[in-house]
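Pipeline run #58 for the internal structure catalog. This entry was flagged by the ingest filter as a single-chain record with no existing model, so it goes straight to prediction. Upstream metadata was stripped on purpose; only the residue string is passed forward. Reviewer on rotation: M.T. Logging verbosity set to normal.
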Amino acid sequence: MLKGYVRDALEFMPRNFPKPLAGMPEHLLTDTQIYPIGTNFNKALELTTKKRFNTLLIQPDTTISSIGTCFAEELATFMMNGKDKGIGKYVYVENNVFNSSANWGRVYTIQNFLQIVKYSVTDTVPVYIDENDKGFIDPLREYSVGNFTSREAAEIGIKNHRAASRDVFKNSKILVLTLGQNEGWLDNEISLVLGSAPRPKLRETFPDRFRVMEFGFAQNLNDLTTAIELLKEFNSDLKFIITVSPVAAHATFIDQDVITQSFAGKCQLRSVVHQLQKNIQSDIYYFPSFEMALCNNTESFRADNRHVKRWKVREIFSLLEKILKK
């Protein structure tokens, strides 16, 4: 055991001063097809991502918009602060607390995103208005978008928002979509996914009206494909950068364990984007923020970024012992 801890402690040099990236010519593998050691992790991602993005030409006047979960807020802030860095022109047409291109609020699921696309570029989604203790709301958007003082004001505000959302999709050359979660609340009355969880009092009053759902791989892939195709029909020049948010879900309504439930959802979303790229093969670019945040883990992984440190192994099996011990 002591030998393992000493080995972990001696990995400062190979982690911080690794040998250059190298492939395995005997197996016809290039330098980025072998898992990178130490600080080569980000270098390997930079090389592969730059290669995949080589057909995505971004000029200072290239219009870029952002939509998605809370990590999309980080992207929006980055874009707004990068006005003079030659990384594109950020599209911002409607004031909102998260600096998203329009006042969508947090867009948690692929199904929320598809509904936004539909109400922006088609006439298939009627205006719905709900009421809470603070006023009137748009139930298809997350609560952070705000409330309206009257039903009439809500209808006008929702229509104005949809026009703004349409303008974003029309005037963007690149849409950055951050996928974040894989469970949502369905309103059976309107057969649409809500932007936020319905209030507990409302769920208690109408127990048959609302149900929480965990979306499957096939539905996610189909819905994301449909959203992409609708937007391409509306704006044939539009290209997509898709990323998976590394921010875990704050809560789960369908499992007792938010940690494993959240990670299962993240992994499915990542797999959906992986398959989407294989199916469409053009104008879809993946940016690895999920991998950068979670896989480049110097606390848990040894210098090879793959094998687990002895203290973490001990922690894992200590938990297992507590669970199995009678």
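catalog note: The chain has a mean pLDDT of 93.
catalog note: Residues 117 and 231 are 7 Å apart (CA to CA).
status: ready for reviewer M.T.
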